[in-house]
Amino acid sequence: MIRLGLEVFLKSNVSLIEGKKVGLLTNQTGVDNELNSIIDLFYNNPRIKLTAIFAPEHGIRNEHQAGVGFQSYVDKRYNIPVFSLYIPSVKYVSLTSRNLDKRMRLGVSSVGKSPTSKMMEAIDVLVFDIQDVGTRVYTHIWTMALCMRICAKKGVSFIVLDRPNPINGVTMEGFVLKYPKNSSFIGLY
């Protein structure tokens, strides 16, 4: 049986975050083998002080449409802040299949895809647990990269809870991105 990073972490590594203010960057894919949400598992664990949830594109429960930004809020179930890492911008162009790429190329910082300094004040460590699909255009990997940048600048620990690649985790195909010329939120590097 495959042991997910979440399960290994809860069994053997909780001490890494014990006594710290913990932020969690996740969505509906952050579950264990019994489909228990990482949010529930962290929130209900007496050794973990969950102080903030960071929401990527689509939100923590996949409640938002692709490419549509959303605001931060306080989660009613947990009574903790959910910080949007997909905040709408006045620079957005209308969402159509023809201009989605243009919209994504407006710039990473202009569309609120990185945590702010204020958001970072709520945490000592940020834990990432999102299933990736192994393609460059899947935005969650780029959200992770931007959060890693901010954590490094702020001296905040960053922990990745790994999940198996659904494609195969070995084969690399496709074009190499010309960086930074063609860099966008659907292909940062």
TrEMBL record:
Residues annotated as domain Peptidoglycan beta-N-acetylmuramidase NamZ N-terminal: 22-188
Cleavable signal peptide: none
GO molecular function: peptidoglycan beta-N-acetylmuramidase activity
InterPro entries from the UniProt entry: NamZ, NamZ_N
Protein name, as recorded: Peptidoglycan beta-N-acetylmuramidase NamZ N-terminal domain-containing protein
Organism (species): marine sediment metagenome
